[in-house]
Amino acid sequence: MGHRSSEVVPIERCEARAYEIPTDAPEADGTAEWNSTTLVVVELTAGGKRGLGYTYADAAAASLIQRSLSEELMGHDVMDVPARMVSLLTRVRNKGRPGLGAMALSAVDAALWDTKARLLEVPLVRLLGAARDWVPVYGSGGFTSYSVERLKEQLAGWVEQGIARVKMKVGRHPDLDGDRVWAAREAIGPDAQLFVDANGAYTAKQALVMAEDFAEAGVVWFEEPVSSDDLEGLHLLRQRIPSGMNVAAGEYGWDAIYFRRMLGAQAVDVLQADASRCLGVTGFLQADALCEAFQVPLSGHCAPGLHLHVACAARNLVHLEYFHDHVRIEHLLFDGARKPVKGALTPDLTRPGMGLEFKRQDAERYAV
Q1: pTM to 2 decimals?
Q2: CATH code at 21?
Q3: Stretch 109-137: mean pLDDT, rounded?
């Protein structure tokens, strides 16, 4: 039997480890290049149950959790997640709350929710309350480091699997972007939706010119055409790019205040939020509430295994990013990682919490 929700269940252990997993090929976008991805896993024990949370961040996030945040949690009730997060936010005040601090807190928040759901023996989406039974996904990759052939193969492969939306990277070589986008359109056919992501690589004037070209190829989503810090530039583009093309940003949002500023500036048609950065499950639902208030749709950014249950609970969510790099890692290192069927992910309601079990032995070879 699970614990009654009225019981106090003290936190007994909180451990964090970092794992660096090589990519299956060199990856790059409009502004960065990488050949490995670091996964930080938090395992939290209370009442005889062990829950988990994770983020994709520098290994220093694991050190922050292990050396500081875990101490703040010991002996306190795991059932009161808001109280735990208030104390943790105070703990990081002088250490730096945005960036690495927010990523560490995000992993801990997810672990708190996962542990609570396991104690109550319910799937996390049941604890949060479902707004939908399944979440549409879009295939995401199409790195600027890929050859045109690999780009076409990857995007067409997702469409063949029934995923009706696919995203590619642009911005590394603006003079080649038009041809690459047309090659992608040719590969996926006329009916699939095509998204592009510049990761802030263009200037506003460049982005306006590129948007006209992309519109001819049927692009319907232009992500971070300029830096997500340039709210005026995003607002300008939102007003002037071709109709039928959405401006999206928000993946680097660390908290509700960040999202409120972005939405208040009318900078995006669709807000992106990432539970591995924006203070976990708690922060993702705050982003959803802000989207409700501003009447703007919400899209989940990356880490599909981490997002699936909270995405089903988010009322304003339109889709979730099925990012090549993270999908590969989650299927490699977590038992219970789901695969899309007919372009959507459905949570496994036979498993408690997020439905994931960390494969510690398999991960050990990647430990930092």
Answers
A1: 0.96
A2: 3.30.390.10
A3: 98
